[in-house]
Amino acid sequence: MSYAQYFIEATYLIASCLFILGLKGLSHPDTARRGMIYAAAGMAAAVFGTLFHPDIHNYIYIAIGLILGSAIGIPMAMVPMTAMPQRTALSHAFGALAASMVGIAEYVIHGASLGGAKSGALGLEVMLGSLTVTGSLIAAAKLQEMMRGTPIMFKGQQVVNLGLFVTMVGSYMAWLVNPATAVFFYVMVTCAFIFGILLVIPIGAADMPVVMSLLNSYAGLSSAATGFVLGNNVLIIAGTLDGFSGFILSILMCRAMNRSMTNVLFGGFGAPLTAETTVTGSMREVTVDDVAVQLAYANQVVFVPGYGMATAQAQHAVRELGNLLEERGVSVKYAIHPVAGRMPGHMNVLLAEANVPYSSLYEMEQINPEMPTTDVAVVIGANDVVNPDARDNPKSLIAGMPIIEVDRAKAVVVLKRGKGKGFSGLENPLFFKPVTGMLYGDAKSSITNLTQAIQKV
Ligand code: NAP
User: Fold this and answer.
1) Backbone angles phi and psi of 347, in degrees to 5
2) Which of 285, 383, 401, 430 gets mutated to test ligand 1 (max ligand atoms within 8 A of its CB)?
3) CATH numeric code, 288-454
4) Crossing angle for the helix pair 116-143 and 208-230, nearest 10 degrees?
5) Quick check: 202 and 393 in contact, CB under 8 A?
6) Where are the domains of the chain?
7) What is residue 276's predicted lDDT score, i.e. its pLDDT?
8) Low pLDDT (below 50) residues in the chain
């Protein structure tokens, strides 16, 4: 090996260690920020090392790529945190597009001379990469509400999907046996692009978090396969870390939502689920003064934040209200649903930003048994994660998803702007129960008004 190659491998080793430290850091909210810094430093090291690759003779195209990438990437990173999931889905699509384009280019350059093992990896890279591109674009469109969130189904969908899958895998096998027959390769690529679309359209919006982490995992595995084709160690390591951590995250999210992976991926093909709910009664509006008295004289109050708290950026106001209640001797707890908001850990991040102590945050399983003894559950811009239909209506689109059982508290106050539905597009029977009072308005102003009113009680 030349000195340049030793240098490159050393930077790859450092990068790989930083990626592992980054993942470790991301496993806890306290260390997540540090984890991100490690991971970014690792990526910088890997890119820097690659610039010394002996096969690079001309830096002009790399410079153009760098400028174009930065020009697209920097504005993309400036989106509000609530739009982060669709932005992440776009990143997966770009990453996977890069992997499948590298794979296609390698095949165009080397053709049948690649050899069996490399061809096997290249085929997998292109197949997984291509279906991740279109699947991630559909996921981004659903999350951005450019497409309807409910499952999109058509007659004969199962047969079409199965046929496409068999043709895709069959072409891959046929190409491995006859690597010089390019038509098999391109049929496989085309099927993979179409399969990505068909895989994601029948999945309901509420299951998108699981789909996203699964697509993330596919993008990672595709990159690992790219690493084998190019003989690039850091791609193999980073791709494998990404692939498996994404897969573990998908399993954890399925567990959190009480769904099996098969149910998420193929649930849309089973018994028809319904967007209809069993809503009876009418919504009861309450005033700031009513709620202020309820809260001021409660023994225990549980705040249940959701996506609306994120859009209203109400976390600091919530913390102030929590502090005020605690000063008055009220026990205040924050209930965290694993898929509240729009990304895993969304509520943890916001509340940590507002310096809510980690010890005041309660996971769903910890807080639910306390609900019957809770005087007031305050739902702050949450909807699906407190929808009792998930527990009570087996035909609901979100049937089986565990919820924070606020309807079992002595009183519930829901802070939302109006009669808007949750992410799943379902009506929420909680809002119609006699125990529930609706406090309409932007979550931040409602919380600020409540704090001022309690100071006068
Ligand atoms: P949600 O079901 O999306 O409901 C949010 C509610 O907040 C809406 O009903 C809306 O009603 C209200 N709202 C919006 N802006 C508000 C504001 N400024 N002030 C007050 N209220 C406001 O939220 P969620 O209960 O947190 O559930 C999360 C959903 O997203 C789940 O279905 C989950 O599967 C899905 N999801 C989660 C992730 C993840 O990883 N966490 C990723 C993608 C999707 P109004 O319009 O009436 O105000």
Assistant:
1) -70, -35
2) 383
3) 3.40.50.1220
4) 150
5) no
6) 79-266, 288-454
7) 59
8) 269-272
